Amino acid sequence: MDIFEEIKVKGFADEYIDPSLDLFAEIDRLKKEKNAVILAHYYQEGDIQDIADYIGDSLGLSQQAAKTDADIIVFAGVHFMAETAKILSPDKKVLLPDLKAGCSLADSCPPHLFKKFKEQYPDHLVITYVNCTAELKALSDIVCTSSNAVQIVESLPKDQKIIFGPDRNLGAWVAKKTGRDLVLWNGACMVHEIFSREKITKLKERHPNAKILAHPECEEVILQMADYIGSTTGILKYATNSPEKEFIVATESGIMHQMEKDNPDKTFIPAPPNNQCACNDCPHMKRNTLEKLYLCLKNEMPEVEVPVHIIKDAVKPIERMLEISAKLGL
Length: 330
Ligand code: 13P
Ligand code: SF4
Prior knowledge:
Elements: H1 3-10, H2 23-34, E1 36-41, H3 46-51, E2 54-56, H4 58-67, E3 72-76, H5 79-88, E4 93-95, H6 104-107, H7 111-119, E5 125-129, H8 134-138, E6 142-144, H9 149-154, E7 162-165, H10 168-178, E8 183-184, H11 197-206, E9 211-214, H12 220-223, E10 228-229, H13 232-241, E11 246-250, H14 255-262, E12 267-270, H15 290-299, H16 308-327
Parallel strand pairs: 1-2, 1-3, 3-4, 5-6, 5-7, 7-8, 9-10, 9-11, 11-12
């Protein structure tokens, strides 16, 4: 029986929750009782961000997962993030509210194909963006996130040949910023490739003072329009520190929650997508709900497991990233 069937049989996924239950109070009680910590990505729904012990981008979340002394990590994010937490803290129980919370970018790089790709460049070092499977990390030399990709590449000798995967947009942006000639895997994120240059141009005409903030997973045509390009934490900090009052935000819409909370006097406009859908939600991130988070903490499942032999190889490139980041004060 696979894990999804097991959950169905045990009934946890659709267990009845008394609607009068104060989920915030219950989650808080269970957290203390079980010595659990809730780590949430900025793309999670607002309620989850509000109950989390730590909210952050992929780098911040990995750093927290590596240093927590909790017995249980509830990872409110997607599967590759929970896997990273498990790789860094293999003795802890790592829970993911919805085990089907995957990632289109991670899916765009199947490890068996990447292995063949890598074999074509035997003298290249492999840097992989953290948004990939544990198996892919195990095939890598260094992992990076959008917060440190440029610095990680720059930390290597200039003549070092590099394969960068799986995100072609982040890779192209890093190549441009560093002046390095990177061999790119052709992967992408479905959310960050949805923005429309034409619609953003029209929006900018109506809001001429608005600054455009973009995540480097966006396509080159969108990045060319941006006043600031950075990770989710970078985007949030830029908006908070900027004297400007209006921002057009080209990344997943969950980030708006913290932006608006931290800056009640500023206006944040989601960058429009190239279809008729009004939102830029990541369908994977948004599989998690407060109800599922409560149930997973109560039942201590679904749990994310990573085979020991994969942990053995995948932990090295992640630790290398954390060491370089710590040295650079990131
Ligand atoms: P960061 O958290 O590094 O900004 O990455 C964004 C993302 O797409 C996570 O899935
Ligand atoms: Fe993956 Fe993109 Fe969703 Fe991030 S926003 S989890 S990269 S699909």
